[in-house]
Amino acid sequence: MNIVEIIKKKRDGSVLSDREINWLVISYIKGTVTDYQFSAFLMAAFINGMNNEETSSLTNAMLYSGKVIDLSSVKGAKIDKHSTGGVGDKTSLILAPIVAAAGVNVPMISGRGLGHSGGTLDKLESIPGFRTDLTLREYKSVIKKCGAVLIGQTKDIAPADKLIYSLRDVTATVESIPFITGSIMSKKLAEGIDGLVLDVKTGSGAFMKDLKSAKALAESLINTAKLFNKKVMAFITDMNQPLGNSIGNWLEVYESIKVLQGEKVDDLLEVSLNLSGAMIYLGGKSESLDEGIDISKAMIESGNAFNKFREIVKLQGGNLTYIDNPDKYPKPKYKVEIKAKKPGYITEINNYEIGMSALELGAGRKTKEEKIDPKAGIIFNCKIGDYVKKNFKFAELFTDNKKVIEIVEARVSNAVIISNEKSRKPKLIKTILT
Amino acid sequence: MNIVEIIKKKRDGSVLSDREINWLVISYIKGTVTDYQFSAFLMAAFINGMNNEETSSLTNAMLYSGKVIDLSSVKGAKIDKHSTGGVGDKTSLILAPIVAAAGVNVPMISGRGLGHSGGTLDKLESIPGFRTDLTLREYKSVIKKCGAVLIGQTKDIAPADKLIYSLRDVTATVESIPFITGSIMSKKLAEGIDGLVLDVKTGSGAFMKDLKSAKALAESLINTAKLFNKKVMAFITDMNQPLGNSIGNWLEVYESIKVLQGEKVDDLLEVSLNLSGAMIYLGGKSESLDEGIDISKAMIESGNAFNKFREIVKLQGGNLTYIDNPDKYPKPKYKVEIKAKKPGYITEINNYEIGMSALELGAGRKTKEEKIDPKAGIIFNCKIGDYVKKNFKFAELFTDNKKVIEIVEARVSNAVIISNEKSRKPKLIKTILT
After folding, report:
1. CA 20 to 30 Å from B203, out of A68, A212, B177, B292?
2. Chain-chain contact of A36 with B11 (C-beta, under 8 angstroms)
């Protein structure tokens, strides 16, 4: 095969064969196709697109660039969830124990925070001792023992993804549905799953700002999952405001514990139950999504879900002291209240700004090397559509970093629009695709 | 400026500013923009295009990546010609002395052969002693003395072009009108010219196979020339068959000498006179193109053109023995005649194949390192539309390389279609654009 001819084909809008895409990805990993040639291909494919078969070929080539975990020795269905990321999205922490408690295995390989969007690994690591860097042997052992495991990406899993993502990041080829699909699905398929529930976020705090592109991504992910014979269901959910009330790593673990203990955090609970319900359904432990939701509720009410959470934490080396007594967790040095400057309806929240503000307080990283402060974050006390009085304490900031407080205060304040006109609450679950 | 933002703009089809393009090219030369980022930009611009202003900005940035020669100390107009290249195209050797004899300076920086297409430098260097690697000081000195000079690209002239071309070559971004324009014009504008006559070839032996793309390139070149305040005129000429009858370096010099001495090689003469006429006209030595053509004819008839050619050869170190006695030139070891297998009309010539056949015989290079055999080439004795009898000797091959003869014989034979139906001669000068 000839790299220039392959680039030319995609440049001129032709469809590449499975063999060509496979050769391209393998050659790039081997280094016989150079960075500058692969980036020319990326740009051509970004602009001219790739069809479902091409996307599936890309995913396949990326998947088999590394190890595909064999979980056939683990009894029962293995279902994972993937979210495209958002602000305050801690559903993984809630649904993994629910679903495992219901008898469906959850083998979950998660990522770290990226920009305004938090990461499951960072949240879990706010629990002292919690190890997300299990070996594949430990990964299998934990899931066999308790039905769920949550770890980070290993270098054996889809190494092509890391390589290609780094190049996309510096060549303006990130926001491409085929590439995003390949990146997500190659990693998820490597986990050894039978099915996947997708949570594609849309809105001001999501990577897909509008419903149309969220749907397109969801459809591409579904198509690819099906081409790999995986059960799949996708939810498009609102990310125009934080999910739940807490943003920041320990704050989110804390909120998850409360939900698992039965506290009703409306929006967070609704999304978590839908996703866990879908996982239980795909895992064959319910006849329908609704029944899966009912089972999920029962798992919370019975205490089984919280117990499962404790079990996971313990098996992955986490200290249960703070799980059982969250109030004992170290406190941040500074707490700042932000009050409404006028009475009115919350009509709009720039959720990206809220996410970035949490990052500035210490909850995220601006560079790969930066350390996260697990205590830092925001508690956000209002939702779009709420009426607030003047001086209503709509947000609290937590940080050890005095320098950033003033800027973040202004940023959070400006991110929330209060108006005289009544406004509607955004629909939380926009649509479900299968 | 931010490279990713600039790539993104072009990726999304926006127009880049002069400042952005300039920064991009400068940063690429400095190495702060990487190969893989520049190739992503190239692919985005290839697919989404660049408008006239962007093309002019690109040309400008490439031009000022190197030295711009100042010929203000040379009296009179300085007009050059550029051809997009073809098979048997030796017009530069004919028109430079004609135009210089008519009192218009011809400062010409030429290239080498590329694939099937010959190069003026290679042709000139078939004259023993002829130096194409003059210093800029020598370049000025020769043009002051005789009104014409023909040299090769120096590393001071538009170094960005070499760098960008190498990257285009391996990233499937060669055939882009804005990039081709930038490449041609940056080098031509660096010569210190007042005006430029363009010969854009079209047909089976040209880089632009169809008239539409040839016109588009001509228009782009004209627009850019005008934006740099240069006088300009473009000819779109036929390249469906060799121009003149000789292909190969010394063979083409020999044919040029014959034309300068008054021999009527119809098509070659017509193109040469039109181009020289246009140069004389742009140089202000005639009132019209037609008058420029008449002056050109007079320069041949008076012997002034041939004398000027001798003068150029002498000033650039060439040995006049072979100019004055071409028959004394060393002979190739092998001469092979190719005969018509049946009688009929020549309806089609695959001119690319003819060019490649000449290359195979030794007239061109397959790799940069290969040496050219100045004696090698083809004499082609027929034109499209001609009637030939069976066994008519329509081509003669010349080479020192016995190994290639059989293959080349078949290749040349297959490149010429002889049919019972009458066929029309292709129009030589398709159109003139100003």
Report:
1. B292
2. no
